[in-house]
Amino acid sequence: MTARIAPAEPPFAAGIQASLDGLMRGKPPLRLFTTLARDPRLFQKFFAGGLLDRGHLSLRQREIVIARTTALCKSEYEWGVHIALFASHAGFDEAQVASLAAGQAHDACWADEDRLLLVLCDMLHAECDVDDALWRSLQSAFSDEAILELLMLAGFYRTVSYLTNALRLPAEPGTPGFAS
């Protein structure tokens, strides 16, 4: 696949390079990041919206929401990046990785607490809303701040999926695809 917009080439502006260095920790920057680096304003706005820091969710909770949202949005690029970088740290087994890509919330591989997050992602994707029953379930499991973070996380990665899909970004080296 050929990207629709070519990524920026180094040397990058000092602020962009500093951000890339902090994010990538010595690894080459991702295509999404270097494509956004074409415009320093857009680059900074994108990273200002990121939620990969320590917030109100565990790494596992965060990655379930990211992987499920990007899979529902058919962003194989972003799904693959997160599976490659975080699946083992989040404790996902092979069945869970496959389920995140194409399974159902009721798949036997999920515990109830994980299943709740999958149902949230599925409902947000289908309805752009959360019904009262699911909201009550979320409130019994998460703080209000964590629920806000879950909603923002799903929305942000829907935006990321728009970017990666519309830009036709090719997979990063070493990242799995949905069929992997």
Automatic annotation (TrEMBL):
SUPFAM superfamilies: AhpD-like. Residues 46-118 form the Carboxymuconolactone decarboxylase-like domain. InterPro entries: AhpD-like, CMD-like. It comes from the Bacteria. This is Carboxymuconolactone decarboxylase family protein. It comes from Variovorax ginsengisoli. The lineage of its organism: Bacteria, Pseudomonadati, Pseudomonadota, Betaproteobacteria, Burkholderiales.
